[in-house]
Amino acid sequence: MTKTYKATGINLRGIPLGESDRILTVLTSQRGLIQLVAPGARKYKSTLRGRSELFVVNELLIAKGRSLDKIIQAETLESFSGLSINLDKLVTSQYLAEIVLCIALTDQPQTELYELFKEHIRRLNLLSPSQSVLPLLSQAVFHLLVLAGIGPQVYKCCVTEKAIIANFQDTNWQVGFSFGGGGIVNLLPDNSTSKDLEKQQNSTQNSTQNSTQNLIINNKLGAVELSLLQQLGGKSLPILSEILPLESMDLSLESAWINIEQLLRNYTQYHLGKSFRAANLVKMI
Which of 25, 151, 171, 282 has CB 3.0 to 4.6 Å from 146, enough for a Cys bridge? Predict the structure, then answer.
């Protein structure tokens, strides 16, 4: 007698199998990542055709198999049609799925990861076409990193453990960010200014050696970028007028979000030891 079980999951990846089948990688709440055969899913009139598309949430009845389990029934609970008709949203979703595939476990409940990923996909689906995906993408990556236990430290210097507050008074003020150190690094001695720092060291654009603490500084962030980065751990994106001074609202927020997204992408790839194919397409957004 064939053993069956039920699971609720969202499709993260699909590859062809044979003439008409498809192998799906599904993130489930109950069992984590599982690979399933969707028989006949590539046939035009198959009932599994639409249910096997990316980012569709299904309630599944699954039969145990020798090598791969097989979908017997699938009932769609939720789909995100807005993703497939917008390239920015689709690429962003695929990038997040690649991260999830790296951090998700198999044969273990992954309820928190499942709900988190689904929530961020839902937000992307509802995003207006005129709005940039970068703020939502940055927060989604940040949340996934925190859940995976590798979230960057953004409120305190990862060397001294002293709090760092963005200095909007000094237009040249910057804070360092170290991948190896795990977060932000204070570049200035206490009560110093950016002019003092220029006298003390010669800095480069993207990668410098902090001789005092022996840390590689991979990026430098201004006050606006640090303030935005520090707010990504919240449940929703920050209201900019509540965290940025009025005069800073005239600065290029788009440039700030681009820098934050690139920083988090590189930090993620550094700690997971993997580059993400869809991330290269995000660079073109």
Answer: 151
Residue 55 sits in the same domain as residue 89 = no
259-285 average pLDDT score: 89
Q: What is the DSSP letter of 82?
A: H
Place of tokens 């200014």: 193
Sequence letter at residue 48: L
What separation in angstroms does the CA of 217 have from each of 127, 256, 257? 34, 18, 19
- Please give the structure tokens belonging to residue 238: 């920050």
Cβ-based neighbours of 255, under 8 Å, separated by 6 or more: none
Tokens at 131, concatenated: 């709005």
**How far separated are the first and last CA of the chain, in Å rounded?**
51
Which residues constitute the domain of residue 45?
4-79
Q: What tokens does 204 get?
A: 């480069």
pLDDT classification of 282: cutoffs 50, 70, 90:
confident
Residue length of the chain: 285
